[in-house]
Amino acid sequence: MTLSTIFRSIRRFYFNYYHIKTSSIYLHSAFTRRLQYAFRLVLTFLIGSFVAYATPLRLHLGQIYMIPNLGVLCIQETFGATLSTTLHVTSVIIPLSMFLFLIQTLGLSYQNYLVGEILLLLSSFCISYRCRTLQFRKLSLWFNAIFFVSIINEQTIRATFAFELLADFVLGMFVAVLVSLLFFPLFATLDIENRVNYCLFHLDQMQAFLIQAFLCYDSTAAKVSLARAAIVERRLRNTMNETRQRLNEVYLEPCRLLQWIFTRHRNEIFSLSIEQQVDLITSLMFHVCSLQAMIEQCTFNKYHQDLVKQLESNLLDFISNQSMVIDSLISSSLVNTDTFHNRLTNLQLAIESLNSAYKQVRLHRIEEVFLTGTKTQSDDHLSHTFFFFQLDAIARLLTQITTINRQREKTSKTTQNYFSIQNFANGQWILIGLCMTQGDTVGGALTTMKLRLVGTLLGSMWAYAIYAAVGEESYKIFAMLVPWLLLCGYLKLIPQWDYAATVAASTPIVVNLGRLYGDVFRQGNYVLLRIQESIIGIGVGMFLTVLIFPTFAVDLLKTNIQDTLKTCRPSACSKIFANSQRIQLNYASLEPSIWWFNYGFSPSQYDLLIKQQLDMFRMLHNMHATLMQINDCSMDDKNQIDELRLNAAGGRFLPDLHGELLDLSRQLSDCIDLWISYLTLTHTTYYR
Q1: Where are the domains of the chain?
Q2: Arithmetic mean of pLDDT over the chain
Q3: pLDDT-derived band of residue 522, with 50, 70 and 90 as boundaries?
Q4: Which CATH class is domain 188-402?
């Protein structure tokens, strides 16, 4: 191993960029990435604590323990997500701090409870109306609540408290951005590149398994390859779902610069934008899954066996050339442009040879039917034609990737994780709990409350253990917080623990470091008091969420399905909708509306409807690809259309295409209209 190779491996590990065929699975795995994130989380806490407690800033700022706490809350898995969070939150709390400073200057002071409550409600209403994104709304409400709680309950407070609180927030977020950039940085751009390489490699692997299944002579042997393909498919779906979410995090990153630094060796042969790469693997996934659906329904009869014998060499040659093209795209070494173009040419020749051979086999079969008078099943012809059409569509996608024009990545709205914080005593955690457990829907709020309660209990247990072990010695508290934050950082990247881990990490920071400020309720069970207040706040929030202008997730689910169905009418729809519908379905399963008035439609039936939408997407995608190919044929050579009609058994094998598509579109449109009407009529009264 040369020195340059070692240096390149270290660089790729440090910047989390790797190649699927050359990188160790132990160095680049979910476990390693979680450890790296946990390390960044702990480092953020330690640097934030140093800034807060070991620099002169502690003499000029008030709530300095908020600096490490904010860093822990704001640091995300990718640099793009962290930067987006800090910029959006900063843009909200800067004008908010000016407004709060004006309120304090006009006379809001200690024990002005009535005026404080009225101003708190009015400012919270304005913040909720202004901040459309749930995460930024929560952080802004939290900033607002801290200010009013401190002003009303503390007798001596400086006139610049609003700006001091702003400084705490900004410093904590700056530390999070700095650590996210400098220590094992994970850029969303490179993460998508990694996922695209992973998907291309495994899509090729899945397709190879499917062709092996197609080449089998009986269904029993085919099931083995189909089972292996299904395992690969499950991995691919999980990776692709997360890839779509990453697209929301790249718009603040220098995507083209990062691509030039890490992937410049392939820019001459594969220069797609991040979004175009994701669209490519999505289209490939559609066609490969269509192959899978056809093979699962294939009848391995004599016609199939004869077809396989005559086309086996062509199919193997095609998949071999396709694998070489994909290997060029994901290779860690430089692939010469001429070499890549030769591989593309070989792939085109292979698919043309396969199509020509299949045409000859089909014509011989038709001649045999005419001469012998034997019966033939049209389903055999149609299913195999569909199979080879999918192979041709896959080859077209791969051969066209070098001709796609470069486009700048589209700026997309950022969708982030939920954030939460716990603070203070004297009943103030009830107010904070109300602010931080709200959601856009009833189900979303209930889910947040459940995870917050779990995180609060776990964090409080560790906070009590720290107090019992080291008391109020700050440096020993830091030492005991480090392993806890390391564990919470690891758990935060597990989807089921994301929000709970955030709250669990924040709770002991607030409880143990907040104690150092001389809270008026230091006597007694400090931790138990916080748990009680959190439970009360969650209970009140649950009551208000269900009774006051509730927005049920089941209504949003129905609206989402309606919009998707309406979009499906004119053309193939985007695949993102189904993922958001599954999230709404998870929220709806916790809502009372799904039990009280479900009109006989259970969550499992909603899940089936979502799966059927995916089937509809695949069908429309295939129809679109078919019509595009027919259009290409009619523009390039009209004789190809005439030959198609001539070889279609006198028009009986392929009936009038326009009439069939028109009838199919009418039936599909009627079905969609029926579902739209049903979903509209079954909305809850609150939503209407």
Answers
A1: 20-186, 188-402, 431-551, 553-634, 639-687
A2: 76
A3: very low
A4: mainly alpha
